[in-house]
TrEMBL record:
<dbReference type="InterPro" id="IPR051448">
    <property type="entry name" value="CdaR-like_regulators"/>
</dbReference>
<dbReference type="InterPro" id="IPR042070">
    <property type="entry name" value="PucR_C-HTH_sf"/>
</dbReference>
<protein>
    <submittedName>
        <fullName>Transcriptional regulator PucR family</fullName>
    </submittedName>
</protein>
<feature type="domain" description="PucR C-terminal helix-turn-helix">
    <location>
        <begin position="457"/>
        <end position="508"/>
    </location>
</feature>
<dbReference type="InterPro" id="IPR025736">
    <property type="entry name" value="PucR_C-HTH_dom"/>
</dbReference>
<dbReference type="Pfam" id="PF13556">
    <property type="entry name" value="HTH_30"/>
</dbReference>
Amino acid sequence: MKMEISINEIAKILQDYDPEVGIADQEKALVSNVVLVDDGIKNLNPDLLYICDSRQFREIIKTAGAGNFLICRSQQDPLIGCDKEKLNRIFLKIPVACEVVYEKIRAAFLNKRILTRKKNELMAAHLSCRGLQHIIDVAYEVLGNPMFVSDLGYNILAFNKNADVGDPSWPTASREAELEAYERIKKLNDCGVFKRLYESLEPCIENFDYSPTRWMANKIVIKEKNIGHIAVVELHKPFVDMDLVLLQFLCEIVASELQKETISSGHFNNDFEHFLIDVLDQKITKPETIHKQGQKLKLNQQKYLLLATISFGKNAQNGMSLSYLKGIVKRLLRTEKIILYQNKITVFLASDKKAELSEIVKPRFRDFLETNEMNVGISQHFDDLTQLSKYYLQSVKAVELGITLTPKEKIFYYQNYAIYHLLETAGTLSNLKDFCNPVLMELLAYDKQYKTDYYHNLLIYLNNDGNVTKSAEYFQIHRNSMKYRIKKIEEILSISLSDMETKFSLVLSDKIISFLAEQNVSAN
């Protein structure tokens, strides 16, 4: 197969000489070799590029037909354009010797031949049908440096096992400790490595403070979606421009290979993930279809179900692969029933005992949330798969309300925030202050006037379900002193705190006041 370079490609190589390009015949604008003109030429070969100076060119065009020319301007020649019909030409406005240009173009043709040969070797490895590992082993020989292939979950799909790299980022045959691996990858993520990699249209070259070598990486794309990357370490030889081109080509080959293989990647959803996402997206709505699919996936074999949804703080994700975080959570909770949905991680949990579900937040998982600015919302228990969407929204709402009302917590159970969800919903229809018992405002006014703290005493008493002993212990006072305070509050407000409806009204009013106060803080 004939190897060709376009006139425009050659012009880019000669940018230092301010090339002026003119294309008269686009079909003949590809050349397969270069000729340095020393004598007059009568018959032009349209496959060749003729290099000459301005004087030689003026003589040649008197008799020559169609052809491709590169005209070098000498110091003595005037700056003239070349617009002869039927001639494709590059005119170098900055003076330069023809011999210098000739050597540059010859080197370009040589590099093109080497690049083509190397691409052919990579393509042959792919067409051999010997798998991803074989392609990466051949690529090691072609690029001259070792590499690995990673999916979005930072799972290593293939690497050069015979390479002795000695770099902290290089994969090994032994499995790295889960949280140690996470900290290493988080460090890379925090400095923007993965963000640059997956947003760039070209390979990235990085130099890390903990690594003695540079790395070159490029993303792997399937159907316009990032599914992983290839990283090459600068171990045996320095990176050159050709390596960047070869790495991009290799990523295309690997993308093609991965579509033939079954790989463990967060990009490819399993049957459970497809089912749950389709239900949440309301693509599956018929109860009989949901139950049938649930039985097939063995989702309704246990009595109690719940959903836990993990969301991220402003600095938690910062470009970190959700697929990788999903893998960490999956292993910490020891479950395969986990999805990525709406930039959150949602876990499906089931048990025949409620107590077992309440113990899902194991110490290691809690520590992981606290260390990495993550929060989890946990829905109420349910037993009907047709209600998945409802309980998913509960888990999401638990996080939203929990972050606002109790920001120091990391784990939010919807049942603890259901009343605030009710208030939020009612607040869209009416002014919540209208539902408050006015006696609370009277007590606040009394405290302000007489410099007392009866409002606080009342709240502690109500929070302890009217238990005088527990309330007294909270304030570290005698039980009789607490009884006196409660009696005084009843006298001030002309109410009876033994009345259940009154106590409920006061508790609800306090929750409304707290909810509105937190809303105002969030708004400001």
